[in-house]
Design goal:
7-stranded mixed β-sheet
């Protein structure tokens, strides 16, 4: 898996202060997407064990109270991302059980493959659906277009 950006302190992508990772790879390629540079799976830089360790370390850092981890992209549920995302989320839930996990995906919750469902089983909040430019509304919180749904799963 590759990623484009990691923010150890983020207050935009979910509630509270969070760690946010923007991964590479998106099959949806929505018209009007603000993050087109993440579409290619081979764009960005490799997600390494060191980066995973850094995320865990940041989530555990008590100097800044972080509520959780947010994953966006690209698309964290892109098939090429699933092994690394699953490994990361299992570790977060084991080492930092008090942290919540938010994921943004263009896939719809009721259309996920079995492998995608495995990842989602570790997610607290899933925002699903492709960005639709004609339904864009800047007043929406944590969504770009009105068709996208916030699912509070756990």
């Amino acid at each position: 898996m590759n990623y484009h950006q990691y923010y150890p302190v983020d207050v935009v992508n979910g509630p509270g202060t969070r760690c946010t990772l923007f991964v590479s790879g998106c099959v949806h390629q929505c018209r009007g997407c603000y993050n087109q540079s993440t579409w290619r799976v081979d764009s960005g830089v490799p997600f390494t064990q060191e980066m995973e360790d850094q995320i865990i370390q940041d989530l555990q850092d008590t100097r800044i109270r972080r509520q959780g981890l947010s994953l966006s992209g690209g698309d964290p549920l892109h098939p090429a991302n699933l092994p690394a995302i699953l490994k990361l989320l299992k570790r977060v839930k084991t080492v930092c059980p008090d942290k919540d996990i938010w994921v943004w995906t263009g896939y719809k919750l009721n259309e996920l493959t079995l492998e995608q469902q495995k990842v989602v089983s570790f997610v607290n909040t899933l925002i699903d659906g492709k960005f639709e430019q004609n339904l864009h509304d800047p007043r929406l919180i944590w969504r770009g277009s009105a068709n996208q749904v916030i699912h509070h799963l756990r």
